[in-house]
Each structure stands twice: as C-alpha cells, then as structure tokens.
Amino acid sequence: MADSVSNAYRRIVHTCRSVALGLLCVLLAACQTATALPATATPPTETASGQPTPTAAQTEPTAATLPLPVVQEYPVAAGAHPHDVAPAPDGTVWYTAQHQGALGRLDPVTGATEQIPLGPGSSPHGVIVGPDGAAWVTDSGLNAIVRVEPESLAVERFPLPADTGYANLNTAVFDKAGILWFTGQSGIYGRLDPTTGAMTVYPAPRGRGPYGITATPDGQVYYTSLAGSYLGHIDPHSGEATVIEPPTSGQGARRAWSDSLGRVWVSEWNAGQVAVYTPESGAWKEWDLPGTAPKAYAVYVDERDKVWLSDFTSNALVRFDPATESFESFPLPSPGAAVRQILGRPGEVWGAESGSDKLVVIRYPSE
Q1: Residue 57 and residue 18: Cα distance in Å, rounded?
Q2: Which residues fall within 8 angstroms of residue 260, CB to CB, at 6 or more apart?
Q3: What confidence category does residue 7 fall into, taking pLDDT thresholds of 50, 70 and 90?
Q4: Residue 308 near residue 300 (C-beta atoms within 8 A)
C-alpha cells in the first residue's frame, strides 16, 4: 500500500513538473517573440556585386508591423559619407555622397542604392527636390549648382560666375516663384533662375558663414550664418540681405526651416539651442536641447509643425513640440552617426548619417 501511494505521489510530482516546464517554455517563447521586434529593422546585406540584397525588413514595411515611431537605418556605399538627404516624390530617397563625388539614390523597399557621378572634382553638399521633380545639388567641389533628372539621370551643371571664387557651396531652397536660392560658407549667397540659367551671386554681410537656408509659405527667404551667428533675410527684388540678431550672442546659427505659419526655426550649434523667429512681431524664443552640452546641427519642421533636430553630443534625433515646449529624444543605433541634415515627407523624417555611411528614417503616425 505504501509503495502504491509513493508511486502515485511520484507520478503526480512528475506531471506537475512537466506542466510547469511546459508553461515556462511558452512564456520564454512569448518573450523572445516580443523582443524580436527591434527598434531598427535588419539592414540589407550586400551581394558580390555590391548591391544590397532585400531582407524581410525591407520587403515588409516596418511601419505596418511595428509600433510607431520606428527608427530604421539603411547602409549606403562605404566611404560615401552622405551629407544631405531628400525624399523624392516616387518614394526613393536622394543623398549626396560627398566623399565620392556622386548623388546617391536609395530604394527604401529593397534597400538597393545607386550613385550618379557628378563630374571630376565633385564634392556635393546639399540636395533638395525642385518643383520640376528633379534633384538639385549644391556642389562645393564643382563650385556649381547641379541638376539631376530623376528618370534619365542626366546631369546638368550651372557654374557660379568666374569672378566668384571658391564659394564652398552649402544649401539651396526654392522660393514661391520657382527661383533657387543658395548659400556658400565662404561668404556668399545667390539666386538661380532655372528657366533661363541666369545666376547672381551676392556678398554676405559679415563675410564668411552662410549655411542653411529656408523659404516661408509666403515666399520670403531666410538664411543662417554659422560663422556670423545671425539670421539673414533676403529681399527677393534687390537681393540685399538684412541681418537679424538672435538673442544669444555667438550662438552659431547653423540651419533654418520655416513652419506652416512662416515662423523660422534655427538650430544653434554653439549654444546647443533651438530658436524660433516670428517675422510679424520680430520676436525670438530659444530653448536648450536636453542633455549635457548638446550640439544642435540640423533642423526640420514636419507636416504637423513639430520641430526635429540632430544632436551630435547625444547621437540622437530630437523632436520638439512647440505647443507643449517639450522634447523627445530618439537615440540612433549607429555610434557617431553625425546626422548633418534632416528632411522628410508625411509620416517620415530622414537623416544622412555622414559618420556611419547610412541613411536613417524615423516613421511616425501622420495625422
């Protein structure tokens, strides 16, 4: 009788252990499934030809499967050091391969990239998409504005006037009338009429420094001077620039972007701040980025008037909500990413990681 009871007891204990082990396995499997949803999708691998091979992360839209916002990186050619980035109307993304004298194009669906050589000596800095759908590049190596046709990939160059000297071309923007305005850190800004090819270059107040540039919805053009630490307003008729002083002295105004109300947002590199200028009142307001000793490089305003910045110190993209005056930080997966420019389209913010040879996108719910 005792042996029977003992055997029964052992069978019960064995059964309980089996059930407990089974439950533990189920829980572990569930945990592994949950942690398998990374903040950054797996990057494409390269084939022998150098072209990325599509992975599940690229063939299945991340935004459809992961909670938003989602951070995803895409590798580009090694040594390209992409400086600026511009999402195109067809869903692809342009980038300047600054160290390889080329304009690159990424297909986010497959992860594949191609690069279009811009000419001997090229060192492209900025890229934007024009009203004509083409890519427009400020090329400091060629000392020229370069247009790349998106379908034929034909390259057209608009050299600066011969007496300009080396301009160290930086950034460009189209105004409401379709005129391309651009900056050069050597101390110039200028305009190009794409229909006629006519170009005029102007000396900037205080010399060296013109860097970022933006156009407001009503067609006003503003640029920032990094070395001069000011915001400049360009008269589109005379071409004359007026200096507008931010509140913080020596702040290092680096890039600028207009919101839908025509306010001009400025990333202040030296001060680690974001500032906004309201043209109607002439008022300024500034905020410190979060963290210790931040370095605000790029600035971009999305379709919801949320302000995005890149912070070199924290290696992150930072989103600022003007309504609540609050920041949210998105750490970048690659160390030393060095995002020097941000641009986007509804639901997406793109950056060029010059320090890691990658492009990065943050996908978020678009209202």
Answers
A1: 37
A2: 217, 301, 305
A3: very low
A4: yes
What's the CA gap between 139 and 102, in Å, rounded? Answer: 10
Position 56 scores a pLDDT of: 34
pLDDT, averaged across the chain: 86
SS3 (DSSP) at 249: coil
- Rounded CA separation 107/91 (Å): 7
Core vs surface per residue 263-287: b (16+ CB within 10 A) or e: bbbbbbbbbbbbbbbebeeeebebb
Residue 20 or residue 208, greater confidence = 208
Q: Which segments of the chain does DSSP mark as H helices, in order? A: 2-35, 56-59, 62-65
**Rounded Cα–Cα distance for residues 98 and 135 (Å):** 15
For domain 65-363, give the CATH superfamily.
Answer: YVTN repeat-like/Quinoprotein amine dehydrogenase (2.130.10.10)
Give the C-alpha separation, 316 to 247, whole Å: 26
Helices (H) and strands (E) in the chain, counts: 3, 30
pLDDT of residue 348: 97
> In 3-state terms, what secondary structure has residue 13?
helix
Q: What local confidence, expressed as pLDDT, does residue 109 receive?
A: 97
Give the E-state strand segments of 130-227 in sequence order: 135-139, 144-148, 155-159, 169-174, 180-184, 188-192, 199-203, 210-215, 221-225
285 pairs with which residues across the strands? 276
DSSP 125-145: EEEEE-TTS-EEEEETTTTEE
In this model, does residue 220 exceed pLDDT 50?
Answer: yes
- Between 34 and 166, residue with greater pLDDT: 166
